[in-house]
Write a structure and sequence with these properties.
Strand 1, helix 1 (about 15-30) and strand 2 (about 35-40) form a beta-alpha-beta unit. It is built from 5 helices and 4 strands; from the N terminus they run βαβααβαβα. By secondary structure, it is an alpha/beta fold. It has a 4-stranded parallel sheet, with helices on both faces. The structure holds 4-nitrophenyl phosphate. 4-nitrophenyl phosphate binds near residues 8, 126 and 128.
Length: about 160
């Protein structure tokens, strides 16, 4: 079982959408059973909340199911998950801070856009204060990046 965790700040916009798109792609490829997938936030503002209504709209618009209760990142996640994908640089730094430097964790912590074919390694922009255009941009970035991530996983794990 390959364990993947998507991380953003609030866990109501970007990371639950990444989780939904990833799950959708796994289903289409018949890979669902090989994975355990979750998302969380570095912040504690929205613990227990469902994804933002604009995130839900974006997922449904693209024919994807989305269901997630917001939770905050905990230290144990850094031992539990094989891959932890940060949406932006601030999330990335906060994940590593939680890890207690010198690095005592086993997860591979990576930027989501490490796997993007366009603007590789940059941030998935925070759409919280934006409008539908920002949410569509986030969807497109995640959709592309997750194709790249799945191609990477297929190679690494001979899927
Ligand atoms: P997310 O977006 O990190 O993609 O879930 C945000 C959601 C909420 C807040 C910030 C970003 N907030 O400040 O409440």
């Amino acid at each position: 079982m390959i364990k993947v965790l998507f991380v953003c700040l609030g866990n109501i916009c970007r990371s639950p959408l990444a989780e939904a798109i990833f799950n959708h792609k796994l289903k289409l490829s018949g890979l669902t059973e090989k994975f355990y997938v979750d998302s969380c936030g570095t912040g504690d503002y929205h613990i227990g909340s469902q994804p933002d209504s604009r995130t839900v709209f974006s997922a449904h618009k693209h024919g994807m199911e989305i269901e997630h209760a917001c939770r905050q990142l905990i230290k144990a996640d850094l031992m539990e998950f094989h891959y932890i994908l940060a949406m932006d640089n601030s999330n990335y730094r906060n994940i590593l801070l939680l890890a207690d430097l010198p690095l005592k964790f086993s997860s591979q912590v990576l930027m989501m856009r490490h796997f993007d074919s366009f603007d590789k390694g940059s941030d998935v922009p925070d759409p919280y204060h934006g409008d539908a255009r920002e949410f569509q941009l986030v969807f497109d970035i995640l959709n592309r990046s997750l194709d790249g991530f799945i191609a990477h996983l297929a190679k690494e794990h001979a899927l």
